[in-house]
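Q: Leucine-rich repeat and death domain-containing protein 1, please. Structure only.
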Amino acid sequence: MSLETEEDEISSGLNTKGLNESFHEFPENYARKDSLHSSENPKVVDLTAKSLNEISYEVPKAEDNEESDKMTENLSKTDLPEKRYEYEFSAEINAATVPQRTLLIFRNQNLKYLHLYNNEIKTLHSNIGNLINLEVLLVEKNKLTSLPPEISLLHKLTVLNVSHNQLSCLPKELSKLVNMKELFLNHNNIDEFPFALKSLETLELAENKLKILPDTMVDMKSLKVLSIDSNQILIFPKVVCYLPNLVKFSICENLIQSLPKDIKELKKLQEFSISNNKLIFLPVQLFQLTKLKELRAHDNKLEFLSDKVENLQELRFLNLAKNLFKNITENLCNCTMLKHLILHDNQLTQLPANIHKLKHLKEFSVSRNQLDSLDEQISHFKDLSIIELSGNALTYIPVELKNCMWITKADLSNNKLSQFPHALCALFDLKYLNLSGNCISEIVPGISYIKNLEYLHLNKNKLTSLSACLCSLTKLIYLDVSENEINSIPATVSEMKALQVLLLHCNKFDLFPEEVCSLKSLQILNLANNQIKSIPLKISNLEVIKELNASNNQFVSFPSEICHLSSLEKLTVCQMNGLKLTKVPEEISKLICLRELDISHNALKEIPDGIGELEYLVHLIANNNDISQLPKSITSLGNLQQLDLSGKKYCLISLPAGLRHLHLLTDINFDGNTLFEPLCEVCKGKQLHPILCYLESADERDEKILQKILEVIADNVPYENFEFFCQKLKLHHVDIKTVKLEEKIITALNSWRSENQVLTSAEMIDKLIRILVMTGMHYLTNKVKALKLYSQSVKF
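A: Structure for Leucine-rich repeat and death domain-containing protein 1:
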């Protein structure tokens, strides 16, 4: 029975959504379908609910496998994890019943597929050896430090994935798995692959600590796919050259300086990746691999490409980006099957004269070279879909480009174009166009013919107005015209009904362009670095806007009209180069969806209490202001993760003790302030735990100080001042029946304290000192102040 037939049968009885999504969703996890065709009655167990930390329970011996199978088949559908995984028979395991369900795993000797990935498993119990019919074992993304020797008992195992664990070595018993076809060991700490598995067809060892490969690998004659990316290999392992069936080989991100001549022996190699190494040349023997279809050698130190490259007649994909090429051999153009040619970030001054031979090119990238012209031969690229020419010195785009009518992406940014290229107007399928960083001063009317355009970058040019012809691009989603000299928007902008992102920063606006308020789909608007003095109430028409940047403008006061944008998630009003704002209105509380607020580089003396109502706020950036104290309401921001109050004005003197209740707050910065509570030294490390510990201790300390101050006041208020003192406490209606003066004062103070429970201990102390000053009891006032200062100066 074929896998496809099996899947069709399943769909009638189970939700068949997940195995292909889960089993194949990671590149390193793919296990070809033909390796799963081995049974007409496969069995699979999924434990992917991110709930397991260990598979190491004591398991009774299975006396009745039939009964075990029945128990497993009858698992409730309510136990399904978030994703379901398919086959004819499926046992899903829920976090609430993990231990009980796990017992069943090792009793089911008919089990063929066991999925345990993305949990917290630290060990695999030796009883895994009971699963004698297991064919596929997926344990990637756990916390395994070793594999049990009993894994050698899984004689039918064909696929083992233990990638993304903490393995440092492999058990020698693994070599006994003579039916193994695919082995995935990526992202571990393995420094040695000690044996050869002769049956293996796929071996992935990327992101480990390998320095060499063993000579015994020469016996792995069946190996077709090998990946040893991101290791510590200095010398190309010659043993690889004698793997006769190798089809795909990747050895990227190592320290290799040269390739051996023996590489010519890899007669069946179709894909070869050796990017991010230290190669200075490619040997001619490499170009004897006539089956090669894909060659990736980017990010090396290559200067020369052999004429023998023309031997690679099957070549479809060539990436030589980020090297030191000054020219490319004409012979490359004889590789006429080439579809992807990537040469960006080199030192090319010209392209091969006969490049027109590459008629099947779909992607052509020569960005960031030294080209000053583009030959009209480019018109021969009839199948071209992506052209990237940015970062050169082009002054002209040949009109023949219009013949490449299937182009969907064109990047011509950062050149020396003074006119909008007319050829682009004939590219009706164009969806992405980048012309930023040129010298274009006018948009041609023909741009309206590019009806499918969705992303348009025109920033860093010399535009003086936003052309009305742009407004006919009704499918445009993203428009960047920042860093020009634009001062107005045409009324026809309302026709751009799909526009979601509009970037107008660094232009010449002195009035808010009200025309943008008609853009009903607008989600991101940037008006920073203009000369805007106010924002109209009409901005409230932007009902789905999520991000607004109004920084560095000339607002006389905070534009409260912004507070009507209830959908806003990110607001930036940083005035580093604009008029400084002195106050944020209480209406800020209306921004109920706000997640990030940047009000840095202003002259704010306080943050409004309304900030506490922004329950979704994650980032609060208020550095370089004059803020001396935070509102108590800030302690209500349960989702706050970042708080930046740094600056050079030494204003902030204390933090609210309730800050310790913000359990998600991890990114803090109070640098440049003269913090007294907590001490500046405590905050320098920008570690929240010591700050919170200090605040908690300070809270306890303030409570003790308050109690002591109350006792001092009770002992020192003269009889003749008592009634006036009670008046200032606003306790003249309190009935105090006791006769003794000290008891009267204590009763009065306790009543006052009860009425002021909303205040912290520190705030009560400050209020008491103000009351004492008003009563004229200067001796007692000084005594209380001295007690406060002395107590707070003690470090703890």
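A: Brief note, in case it's useful. Residues 1-42, 49-100, 676-680 have pLDDT under 50 and may be disordered.
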